[in-house]
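Encode chain A's predicted structure.
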Amino acid sequence: MTARQLAELIDRHSPVLVLFARQRCDTPEDVVQEAFCALAALHTPPVDPAAWLFRTVRNRSLDAGKADRRRKRREAAVGGSAAWFVEPRASGLEQAEAVAALQALPDDLREVIVLRLWSDLTLEQIAAAVGCSVSTAFRRYESGLALLRQTLGESCPKS
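Encoded structure for chain A:
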């Protein structure tokens, strides 16, 4: 398949493929892009590239939808196990407030806090996971907790 043929397929089918994938998953653009990449990588193009694309997008969007649902269930289960998010506090801290405060943190601070509190990773493991030094991971963790304490007026675990 030539680059021109692939470009014509992209122009002609991308919008409909995205709409088709959107029924089944939260990342339809990614699914469509993966399908076109897979088509470009084929040594022998399919007899009917449009049908192949729709079948591939359908299968990949079903897989992505299942993965989305599994991820949401895991996040709900893991998020629900964090005691400082779900146990009632004498001061009246609500789960919704804590979730909103965590979501309001900058991404780099939030990811370190989530990894530390829910995954129980060491700072060395967190640093390796996010691609920073241990001291940077520690600073992000401490800064994030300080912002949470300030926002919520609550003490956060230091484990």
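Helices lie at 3-22, 28-41, 49-80, 83-86, 95-104, 107-117, 123-130, 134-152.
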